[in-house]
Design brief:
Elements lengths: L5 E5 L6 H9 L4 E3 L3 E2 L14 E2 L2 H9 L3 E7 L2 E6 H10 L2 E5 L2 H10 L5 E7 L3 H10 L5 H14 L8 E4 L3 H16 L8 H12 L1
Parallel strand pairs: 1-7, 1-8, 2-7, 3-4, 8-9
Antiparallel strand pairs: 3-6, 5-6
Helix pairs in contact: 1-7, 5-6
Bound molecules: guanosine-5'-monophosphate.
């Protein structure tokens, strides 16, 4: 049985990545990596499904015990991917989807693991739409949306670290694009990718 591949989806907050990860995980032979975090759960989140919610002490202990494949601090909280479950799934031949930020992605890239790695960076269609999405979350405080917009301007610069950058104009189209790129990579087929279109979109997003 061939070993599974690793698929990373990253995006600045509010680009619609969570739904894409859910859709991809419904494909046969695809599973999602469940991260550990020190963040408090949102009202709709379930421990062990969305994240394993742990306190700082437990997280620090896991770092010391070298349990993480990667970990990072994002918006004042720690997030990390444990090695054990991931390698178990990959060895079984399952493809593992990671919803992690650019810091974690760079850590995984630099480890040069034997498993194939495909990385996607998801962008919102416009700055206006991004602000709308951030303000609509369960964050009552507009200040948080403003803070995340500032974070966006920094995070978006990491698009260059990724294999593919995808603009999430429409969820279905975006999902199909990602899914098609994955199939092409698995079957070693060529695909088209317009990097100039991405560069222009980024210019517009940060101006
Ligand atoms: P949220 O708190 O909105 O669920 O996630 C905040 C950010 O943390 C997102 O960009 C998400 O991709 C990232 N994240 C979630 N889990 C992990 C992880 O295990 N490692 C890293 N490096 N980032 C993560």
């Amino acid at each position: 049985m061939s070993e599974g591949i690793m698929i990373v989806l990253s995006s600045p907050s509010g680009a619609g990545k969570t739904t894409l990860v859910k859709l991809l995980s419904e494909r046969k032979g695809f599973v999602t990596s469940i991260s550990h975090t020190t963040r408090t759960p949102r009202s709709n989140e379930v421990d062990g499904e969305d994240y394993y919610f742990v306190n700082n002490k437990k997280f620090e202990k896991m770092i010391k015990n070298n349990e993480f494949l990667e970990y990072a601090k994002v918006f004042k909280n720690f997030y990390g991917t444990t090695k054990l479950n991931i390698f178990k799934e990959l060895d079984k031949g399952n493809n593992v989807i990671f919803d992690i930020d650019w810091q974690g992605t760079n850590q995984i890239i630099s480890q040069k693991l034997k498993n194939k790695l495909i990385t996607f960076f998801i962008l919102p269609p416009s700055r206006k739409e991004l602000f709308k999405r951030l303000s609509n979350r369960d964050m009552k405080d507009k200040l948080i949306a403003d803070e995340r917009m500032k974070m966006f301007d920094k995070d978006v610069l990491h698009w260059k670290d990724y294999n593919y950058v995808i603009i999430n104009n429409d969820l279905e189209v975006c999902y199909k694009q990602i899914s098609d790129y994955i199939d092409c990579e698995i079957n070693q087929k060529d695909s088209t990718y317009d990097v100039n279109l991405i560069k222009n979109h980024i210019k517009k997003l940060i101006s």
